[in-house]
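Help! Submission page says 'invalid entity' but I think these are all valid:
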Amino acid sequence: MSGKPRLTYLNGRGRMEPVRWLLAAAGVEFEEIFLETREQYEKLIKDGVLMFQQVPLVEIDGMKMVQTRAILSYIAGKHNLYGKDLKERALIDMYVEGITDLMQMILVFPFSPPEAKEKNIDSIKERATNRYFPVFEKVLKQHGQDFLVGNKFSWADVQLIEAILAVEEKIPAVLSGFPQLQAFKKRMSNMPTIKKFLQPGSPRKPPPDECYVETVLKVFKK
Amino acid sequence: MSGKPKLHYFNGRGRMESIRWLLAAAGVEFEECFLETKDDLTKLQKDGSLMFQQVPMVEIDGMKMVQSRAIANYIATKYNLYGKDLKERALIDMYVEAIIDLNELLIIHIFQPADKKEQHLATIVDKATNRYFPVYEKVLKDHGQGFLVGNQFSRADVQLLETLLMAEECKPDILAKFPLLQSFKARISNIPTIKKFLQPGSQRKPPLQEKDVPKVMKIFH
Protein backbone atom coordinates (compact mmCIF):
# COMPACT_ATOMS: atom_id res chain seq x y z
CA MET A 1 0.00 0.00 0.00
CA SER A 2 1.42 3.27 -1.09
CA GLY A 3 -0.13 5.72 1.33
CA LYS A 4 -1.17 7.88 -1.59
CA PRO A 5 -4.83 8.86 -1.89
CA ARG A 6 -6.66 6.54 -4.26
CA LEU A 7 -9.44 7.91 -6.44
CA THR A 8 -12.18 5.70 -7.89
CA TYR A 9 -14.25 7.18 -10.70
CA LEU A 10 -14.73 7.05 -14.44
CA ASN A 11 -11.83 7.91 -16.68
CA GLY A 12 -13.07 11.43 -17.22
CA ARG A 13 -13.69 14.73 -15.45
CA GLY A 14 -17.21 14.56 -14.04
CA ARG A 15 -17.47 15.12 -10.32
CA MET A 16 -13.94 13.95 -9.59
CA GLU A 17 -12.07 16.59 -11.56
CA PRO A 18 -12.12 19.26 -8.79
CA VAL A 19 -10.57 16.65 -6.48
CA ARG A 20 -7.80 15.95 -8.97
CA TRP A 21 -7.18 19.69 -9.29
CA LEU A 22 -7.03 20.24 -5.53
CA LEU A 23 -4.70 17.32 -4.84
CA ALA A 24 -2.47 18.36 -7.72
CA ALA A 25 -2.44 21.99 -6.56
CA ALA A 26 -1.44 20.80 -3.09
CA GLY A 27 1.39 18.79 -4.64
CA VAL A 28 -0.11 15.48 -3.55
CA GLU A 29 0.46 12.44 -5.75
CA PHE A 30 -2.48 10.11 -6.09
CA GLU A 31 -3.54 6.87 -7.73
CA GLU A 32 -6.66 6.28 -9.78
CA ILE A 33 -8.98 3.36 -10.43
CA PHE A 34 -11.23 3.80 -13.44
CA LEU A 35 -14.72 2.38 -13.67
CA GLU A 36 -15.39 1.07 -17.14
CA THR A 37 -18.22 -1.41 -16.71
CA ARG A 38 -21.40 -1.70 -14.74
CA GLU A 39 -20.09 -4.90 -13.19
CA GLN A 40 -17.16 -3.07 -11.62
CA TYR A 41 -19.56 -0.51 -10.17
CA GLU A 42 -21.91 -3.17 -8.84
CA LYS A 43 -19.00 -4.97 -7.24
CA LEU A 44 -18.01 -1.80 -5.41
CA ILE A 45 -21.55 -1.52 -4.10
CA LYS A 46 -21.65 -5.15 -3.09
CA ASP A 47 -18.31 -4.81 -1.30
CA GLY A 48 -19.85 -2.04 0.77
CA VAL A 49 -17.16 0.52 0.02
CA LEU A 50 -19.50 3.23 -1.25
CA MET A 51 -21.31 4.76 1.71
CA PHE A 52 -24.26 5.92 -0.39
CA GLN A 53 -23.60 3.66 -3.36
CA GLN A 54 -22.09 6.51 -5.32
CA VAL A 55 -18.76 7.66 -6.62
CA PRO A 56 -16.58 9.74 -6.34
CA LEU A 57 -14.76 7.63 -3.80
CA VAL A 58 -11.42 8.74 -2.38
CA GLU A 59 -9.47 6.47 -0.07
CA ILE A 60 -7.41 8.78 2.04
CA ASP A 61 -5.89 8.59 5.53
CA GLY A 62 -7.68 5.35 6.33
CA MET A 63 -11.09 6.66 5.30
CA LYS A 64 -13.22 5.73 2.34
CA MET A 65 -14.52 9.21 1.63
CA VAL A 66 -17.52 9.91 -0.55
CA GLN A 67 -19.47 13.08 -1.39
CA THR A 68 -17.37 15.49 -3.42
CA ARG A 69 -17.67 18.47 -1.11
CA ALA A 70 -16.75 16.40 1.94
CA ILE A 71 -13.67 15.15 0.11
CA LEU A 72 -12.65 18.61 -1.08
CA SER A 73 -13.16 20.17 2.38
CA TYR A 74 -10.99 17.50 3.94
CA ILE A 75 -8.18 17.94 1.43
CA ALA A 76 -8.35 21.73 1.72
CA GLY A 77 -8.29 21.54 5.51
CA LYS A 78 -5.44 19.06 5.59
CA HIS A 79 -3.24 20.99 3.16
CA ASN A 80 -3.77 24.51 4.49
CA LEU A 81 -5.85 25.65 1.55
CA TYR A 82 -8.84 26.70 3.65
CA GLY A 83 -7.87 30.09 5.02
CA LYS A 84 -6.44 31.00 8.41
CA ASP A 85 -9.65 31.48 10.40
CA LEU A 86 -13.40 31.11 10.38
CA LYS A 87 -14.07 34.31 8.44
CA GLU A 88 -11.60 33.43 5.69
CA ARG A 89 -13.21 30.02 5.49
CA ALA A 90 -16.59 31.67 5.13
CA LEU A 91 -15.33 33.69 2.15
CA ILE A 92 -13.67 30.66 0.57
CA ASP A 93 -16.87 28.64 1.04
CA MET A 94 -19.01 31.35 -0.58
CA TYR A 95 -16.68 31.66 -3.55
CA VAL A 96 -16.33 27.90 -3.98
CA GLU A 97 -20.08 27.32 -3.78
CA GLY A 98 -20.76 30.00 -6.39
CA ILE A 99 -18.15 28.56 -8.73
CA THR A 100 -19.56 25.07 -8.14
CA ASP A 101 -22.98 26.29 -9.29
CA LEU A 102 -21.38 27.50 -12.54
CA MET A 103 -19.44 24.24 -12.93
CA GLN A 104 -22.66 22.31 -12.48
CA MET A 105 -23.89 23.78 -15.77
CA ILE A 106 -20.73 22.51 -17.45
CA LEU A 107 -21.03 19.14 -15.76
CA VAL A 108 -24.48 18.43 -17.14
CA PHE A 109 -23.89 19.96 -20.56
CA PRO A 110 -22.64 16.79 -22.33
CA PHE A 111 -25.84 15.03 -21.31
CA SER A 112 -28.20 17.58 -22.79
CA PRO A 113 -29.95 16.72 -26.07
CA PRO A 114 -28.29 18.07 -29.26
CA GLU A 115 -31.09 20.56 -29.93
CA ALA A 116 -30.60 22.13 -26.48
CA LYS A 117 -26.83 22.43 -26.67
CA GLU A 118 -26.62 25.87 -28.25
CA LYS A 119 -29.06 27.34 -25.78
CA ASN A 120 -27.11 25.77 -22.92
CA ILE A 121 -23.86 27.31 -24.10
CA ASP A 122 -25.62 30.67 -24.15
CA SER A 123 -26.82 30.08 -20.58
CA ILE A 124 -23.32 29.20 -19.43
CA LYS A 125 -21.96 32.31 -21.13
CA GLU A 126 -24.67 34.48 -19.60
CA ARG A 127 -24.13 33.19 -16.09
CA ALA A 128 -20.36 33.28 -16.31
CA THR A 129 -20.19 36.82 -17.64
CA ASN A 130 -23.10 38.34 -15.70
CA ARG A 131 -23.26 36.50 -12.41
CA TYR A 132 -20.00 34.81 -11.49
CA PHE A 133 -16.95 36.28 -13.19
CA PRO A 134 -17.85 39.89 -12.25
CA VAL A 135 -17.74 38.93 -8.57
CA PHE A 136 -14.20 37.60 -8.74
CA GLU A 137 -13.04 40.38 -11.06
CA LYS A 138 -14.23 42.85 -8.43
CA VAL A 139 -12.69 40.93 -5.49
CA LEU A 140 -9.29 40.90 -7.19
CA LYS A 141 -9.56 44.54 -8.22
CA GLN A 142 -10.56 45.72 -4.76
CA HIS A 143 -7.78 44.11 -2.75
CA GLY A 144 -5.20 44.05 -5.53
CA GLN A 145 -3.74 40.83 -4.21
CA ASP A 146 -2.66 37.77 -6.12
CA PHE A 147 -5.10 35.38 -4.47
CA LEU A 148 -8.81 35.57 -3.79
CA VAL A 149 -8.71 35.29 0.00
CA GLY A 150 -6.28 36.40 2.67
CA ASN A 151 -3.39 37.08 0.33
CA LYS A 152 -2.70 33.38 0.29
CA PHE A 153 -3.25 30.51 -2.13
CA SER A 154 -6.44 28.62 -1.25
CA TRP A 155 -9.06 26.17 -2.49
CA ALA A 156 -11.00 29.13 -3.92
CA ASP A 157 -8.15 29.97 -6.30
CA VAL A 158 -7.92 26.37 -7.50
CA GLN A 159 -11.64 26.14 -8.07
CA LEU A 160 -11.68 29.43 -9.98
CA ILE A 161 -8.82 28.58 -12.33
CA GLU A 162 -10.45 25.23 -13.07
CA ALA A 163 -13.73 26.95 -13.87
CA ILE A 164 -12.14 29.63 -16.04
CA LEU A 165 -10.38 27.03 -18.18
CA ALA A 166 -13.50 24.86 -18.42
CA VAL A 167 -15.67 27.78 -19.54
CA GLU A 168 -13.02 28.94 -22.00
CA GLU A 169 -13.10 25.54 -23.65
CA LYS A 170 -16.70 26.28 -24.59
CA ILE A 171 -16.51 30.06 -24.99
CA PRO A 172 -12.94 30.99 -25.91
CA ALA A 173 -13.33 34.77 -25.56
CA VAL A 174 -15.24 34.61 -22.29
CA LEU A 175 -12.57 36.51 -20.34
CA SER A 176 -12.44 39.40 -22.77
CA GLY A 177 -14.17 41.80 -20.37
CA PHE A 178 -12.21 40.66 -17.34
CA PRO A 179 -8.60 41.88 -17.20
CA GLN A 180 -8.10 40.88 -13.56
CA LEU A 181 -9.25 37.34 -14.30
CA GLN A 182 -6.94 37.18 -17.30
CA ALA A 183 -4.01 38.08 -15.09
CA PHE A 184 -5.24 35.68 -12.41
CA LYS A 185 -5.42 32.88 -14.96
CA LYS A 186 -1.85 33.50 -16.05
CA ARG A 187 -0.61 33.72 -12.49
CA MET A 188 -2.31 30.51 -11.36
CA SER A 189 -1.27 28.62 -14.46
CA ASN A 190 2.34 29.45 -13.66
CA MET A 191 2.33 28.17 -10.11
CA PRO A 192 4.60 25.13 -10.16
CA THR A 193 2.08 22.50 -9.04
CA ILE A 194 -0.62 23.83 -11.32
CA LYS A 195 1.76 24.27 -14.23
CA LYS A 196 2.69 20.61 -13.85
CA PHE A 197 -0.98 19.60 -13.78
CA LEU A 198 -1.63 21.54 -16.96
CA GLN A 199 1.04 19.67 -18.88
CA PRO A 200 0.29 16.67 -21.08
CA GLY A 201 0.62 13.37 -19.28
CA SER A 202 -0.73 14.71 -15.97
CA PRO A 203 -3.78 13.16 -14.27
CA ARG A 204 -5.90 16.02 -15.65
CA LYS A 205 -8.69 14.60 -17.78
CA PRO A 206 -9.71 15.89 -21.23
CA PRO A 207 -13.11 17.48 -21.86
CA PRO A 208 -15.94 14.94 -21.96
CA ASP A 209 -16.65 13.46 -25.38
CA GLU A 210 -19.33 11.12 -26.69
CA CYS A 211 -17.38 8.08 -25.56
CA TYR A 212 -17.34 9.43 -22.00
CA VAL A 213 -21.07 10.11 -22.07
CA GLU A 214 -21.70 6.57 -23.28
CA THR A 215 -19.59 5.13 -20.47
CA VAL A 216 -21.44 7.17 -17.87
CA LEU A 217 -24.80 5.98 -19.11
CA LYS A 218 -23.58 2.39 -19.33
CA VAL A 219 -22.06 2.25 -15.85
CA PHE A 220 -24.73 4.18 -13.97
CA LYS A 221 -27.93 3.50 -15.84
CA LYS A 222 -30.65 2.27 -13.57
CA MET B 1 -29.16 46.96 15.07
CA SER B 2 -29.78 43.94 17.19
CA GLY B 3 -26.68 41.86 16.64
CA LYS B 4 -28.87 38.90 15.86
CA PRO B 5 -28.40 37.12 12.55
CA LYS B 6 -30.91 38.32 9.96
CA LEU B 7 -32.23 35.87 7.40
CA HIS B 8 -33.46 36.98 3.98
CA TYR B 9 -35.71 34.52 2.14
CA PHE B 10 -39.31 33.88 1.31
CA ASN B 11 -41.66 32.83 4.09
CA GLY B 12 -41.17 29.11 3.61
CA ARG B 13 -38.68 26.30 4.06
CA GLY B 14 -36.78 25.98 0.80
CA ARG B 15 -33.02 26.35 1.12
CA MET B 16 -33.20 28.43 4.30
CA GLU B 17 -34.86 25.89 6.55
CA SER B 18 -31.70 23.95 7.41
CA ILE B 19 -30.13 27.21 8.52
CA ARG B 20 -33.11 28.01 10.73
CA TRP B 21 -32.77 24.55 12.27
CA LEU B 22 -29.05 25.00 12.90
CA LEU B 23 -29.40 28.41 14.52
CA ALA B 24 -32.28 27.18 16.63
CA ALA B 25 -30.38 24.07 17.69
CA ALA B 26 -27.47 26.28 18.73
CA GLY B 27 -29.85 28.41 20.78
CA VAL B 28 -29.25 31.48 18.63
CA GLU B 29 -32.12 33.92 18.22
CA PHE B 30 -32.51 35.34 14.73
CA GLU B 31 -34.62 37.78 12.76
CA GLU B 32 -36.22 37.20 9.39
CA CYS B 33 -36.95 39.45 6.43
CA PHE B 34 -39.41 37.79 4.04
CA LEU B 35 -39.42 38.29 0.29
CA GLU B 36 -43.04 38.52 -0.82
CA THR B 37 -42.70 39.71 -4.41
CA LYS B 38 -40.17 39.73 -7.21
CA ASP B 39 -39.58 43.41 -6.43
CA ASP B 40 -38.31 42.46 -3.00
CA LEU B 41 -35.71 40.20 -4.61
CA THR B 42 -34.83 42.78 -7.24
CA LYS B 43 -34.27 45.41 -4.57
CA LEU B 44 -31.80 43.18 -2.73
CA GLN B 45 -30.03 42.43 -6.00
CA LYS B 46 -29.79 46.13 -6.88
CA ASP B 47 -28.49 46.95 -3.39
CA GLY B 48 -25.55 44.71 -4.05
CA SER B 49 -26.49 42.64 -1.02
CA LEU B 50 -26.52 39.32 -2.85
CA MET B 51 -23.09 38.17 -3.97
CA PHE B 52 -24.46 35.94 -6.74
CA GLN B 53 -27.89 37.61 -7.00
CA GLN B 54 -29.46 34.81 -4.98
CA VAL B 55 -31.01 34.07 -1.63
CA PRO B 56 -30.62 32.60 0.99
CA MET B 57 -28.72 35.52 2.44
CA VAL B 58 -27.86 35.78 6.11
CA GLU B 59 -26.47 38.90 7.71
CA ILE B 60 -24.20 37.62 10.45
CA ASP B 61 -21.12 38.99 12.21
CA GLY B 62 -20.78 41.88 9.78
CA MET B 63 -20.99 39.65 6.70
CA LYS B 64 -23.75 39.27 4.14
CA MET B 65 -23.37 35.53 3.67
CA VAL B 66 -24.84 33.68 0.73
CA GLN B 67 -24.77 30.04 -0.42
CA SER B 68 -26.57 27.81 2.06
CA ARG B 69 -23.64 25.45 2.57
CA ALA B 70 -21.25 28.32 3.32
CA ILE B 71 -23.72 29.76 5.80
CA ALA B 72 -24.35 26.41 7.48
CA ASN B 73 -20.60 25.68 7.68
CA TYR B 74 -20.00 29.03 9.38
CA ILE B 75 -22.77 28.60 11.92
CA ALA B 76 -21.82 25.00 12.67
CA THR B 77 -18.20 25.92 13.32
CA LYS B 78 -18.99 29.03 15.33
CA TYR B 79 -21.30 27.13 17.65
CA ASN B 80 -19.21 23.98 18.00
CA LEU B 81 -21.49 21.73 16.00
CA TYR B 82 -18.82 20.56 13.57
CA GLY B 83 -16.85 17.91 15.42
CA LYS B 84 -13.59 18.21 17.30
CA ASP B 85 -11.08 17.65 14.49
CA LEU B 86 -10.62 17.27 10.76
CA LYS B 87 -11.63 13.60 10.71
CA GLU B 88 -14.85 14.19 12.63
CA ARG B 89 -15.59 17.04 10.25
CA ALA B 90 -15.02 14.68 7.34
CA LEU B 91 -17.60 12.26 8.74
CA ILE B 92 -20.06 15.03 9.49
CA ASP B 93 -19.60 16.39 5.97
CA MET B 94 -20.22 13.01 4.38
CA TYR B 95 -23.37 12.46 6.40
CA VAL B 96 -24.63 16.00 5.82
CA GLU B 97 -23.97 16.03 2.08
CA ALA B 98 -26.05 12.89 1.62
CA ILE B 99 -28.82 14.36 3.76
CA ILE B 100 -28.73 17.44 1.53
CA ASP B 101 -29.12 15.19 -1.52
CA LEU B 102 -32.24 13.66 0.00
CA ASN B 103 -33.49 17.08 1.09
CA GLU B 104 -33.21 18.32 -2.49
CA LEU B 105 -35.64 15.65 -3.58
CA LEU B 106 -38.02 16.58 -0.78
CA ILE B 107 -37.78 20.32 -1.52
CA ILE B 108 -38.59 19.98 -5.20
CA HIS B 109 -41.44 17.53 -4.71
CA ILE B 110 -44.13 20.20 -4.46
CA PHE B 111 -42.91 21.76 -7.72
CA GLN B 112 -43.33 18.56 -9.75
CA PRO B 113 -46.04 18.63 -12.43
CA ALA B 114 -49.17 16.73 -11.38
CA ASP B 115 -48.52 13.79 -13.68
CA LYS B 116 -45.01 13.28 -12.29
CA LYS B 117 -45.78 13.65 -8.58
CA GLU B 118 -46.54 10.02 -7.80
CA GLN B 119 -43.41 8.76 -9.52
CA HIS B 120 -41.35 11.39 -7.74
CA LEU B 121 -42.74 10.36 -4.38
CA ALA B 122 -41.83 6.76 -5.17
CA THR B 123 -38.27 7.88 -5.94
CA ILE B 124 -38.05 9.76 -2.65
CA VAL B 125 -39.26 6.76 -0.68
CA ASP B 126 -36.94 4.40 -2.56
CA LYS B 127 -33.85 6.56 -2.02
CA ALA B 128 -34.72 7.32 1.60
CA THR B 129 -35.36 3.73 2.61
CA ASN B 130 -32.75 1.99 0.47
CA ARG B 131 -29.88 4.39 0.11
CA TYR B 132 -29.85 6.87 2.98
CA PHE B 133 -31.69 5.71 6.09
CA PRO B 134 -29.91 2.33 6.27
CA VAL B 135 -26.57 4.14 6.53
CA TYR B 136 -27.59 6.19 9.55
CA GLU B 137 -29.37 3.24 11.15
CA LYS B 138 -26.13 1.27 10.85
CA VAL B 139 -23.96 4.12 12.16
CA LEU B 140 -26.11 4.37 15.27
CA LYS B 141 -26.17 0.59 15.67
CA ASP B 142 -22.41 0.18 15.26
CA HIS B 143 -21.32 2.71 17.88
CA GLY B 144 -24.39 2.58 20.11
CA GLN B 145 -24.02 6.26 20.98
CA GLY B 146 -26.65 8.96 21.19
CA PHE B 147 -25.25 11.12 18.43
CA LEU B 148 -24.02 10.38 14.94
CA VAL B 149 -20.43 11.56 15.33
CA GLY B 150 -17.96 11.65 18.17
CA ASN B 151 -20.49 11.05 20.92
CA GLN B 152 -21.34 14.74 20.71
CA PHE B 153 -24.26 16.75 19.34
CA SER B 154 -23.40 18.08 15.89
CA ARG B 155 -24.98 19.54 12.79
CA ALA B 156 -25.25 16.02 11.39
CA ASP B 157 -27.78 15.20 14.11
CA VAL B 158 -29.73 18.41 13.49
CA GLN B 159 -29.91 17.91 9.76
CA LEU B 160 -30.80 14.24 10.02
CA LEU B 161 -33.68 15.00 12.37
CA GLU B 162 -34.92 17.74 10.03
CA THR B 163 -34.91 15.31 7.12
CA LEU B 164 -36.51 12.44 9.05
CA LEU B 165 -39.41 14.71 9.96
CA MET B 166 -39.79 15.96 6.37
CA ALA B 167 -39.70 12.41 5.05
CA GLU B 168 -42.43 11.43 7.52
CA GLU B 169 -44.54 14.30 6.20
CA CYS B 170 -44.32 12.58 2.79
CA LYS B 171 -44.99 9.11 4.11
CA PRO B 172 -45.89 8.80 7.81
CA ASP B 173 -44.62 5.23 8.28
CA ILE B 174 -41.36 5.75 6.39
CA LEU B 175 -39.33 4.95 9.52
CA ALA B 176 -41.13 1.68 10.16
CA LYS B 177 -38.08 -0.46 9.46
CA PHE B 178 -35.62 1.79 11.28
CA PRO B 179 -35.96 1.38 15.05
CA LEU B 180 -32.75 3.23 15.86
CA LEU B 181 -33.75 6.18 13.69
CA GLN B 182 -37.06 6.24 15.52
CA SER B 183 -35.34 6.44 18.90
CA PHE B 184 -32.85 8.95 17.48
CA LYS B 185 -35.77 11.08 16.37
CA ALA B 186 -37.33 10.98 19.84
CA ARG B 187 -34.03 11.67 21.58
CA ILE B 188 -32.92 14.62 19.45
CA SER B 189 -36.42 16.10 19.46
CA ASN B 190 -36.16 16.29 23.23
CA ILE B 191 -33.01 18.38 23.31
CA PRO B 192 -34.27 21.66 24.85
CA THR B 193 -33.37 24.00 21.96
CA ILE B 194 -34.83 21.58 19.42
CA LYS B 195 -37.91 20.89 21.51
CA LYS B 196 -38.54 24.62 21.58
CA PHE B 197 -38.11 24.87 17.80
CA LEU B 198 -40.61 22.06 17.29
CA GLN B 199 -43.31 23.85 19.21
CA PRO B 200 -46.00 25.95 17.54
CA GLY B 201 -45.08 29.61 17.31
CA SER B 202 -41.41 28.94 16.60
CA GLN B 203 -39.70 30.10 13.43
CA ARG B 204 -39.89 26.66 11.91
CA LYS B 205 -41.78 26.89 8.64
CA PRO B 206 -44.60 24.58 7.52
CA PRO B 207 -44.38 22.60 4.28
CA LEU B 208 -45.22 24.61 1.18
CA GLN B 209 -48.83 24.15 0.09
CA GLU B 210 -49.84 23.69 -3.56
CA LYS B 211 -51.73 26.97 -3.46
CA ASP B 212 -48.59 28.89 -2.50
CA VAL B 213 -46.43 27.49 -5.29
CA PRO B 214 -47.39 30.15 -7.89
CA LYS B 215 -46.47 32.94 -5.47
CA VAL B 216 -43.04 31.44 -4.82
CA MET B 217 -42.45 30.86 -8.53
CA LYS B 218 -43.25 34.54 -9.19
CA ILE B 219 -40.58 35.71 -6.80
CA PHE B 220 -37.84 33.67 -8.41
CA HIS B 221 -38.81 33.45 -12.08
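Support: the input was valid. A stray whitespace character was the problem, and the output above is from the cleaned input. Chain A touches chain B at residues 51-53, 61, 63, 65-70, 73-74, 77-78, 86-87, 89-90, 93-94, 96-98, 101, 131-132, 135 (CB under 8 Å).
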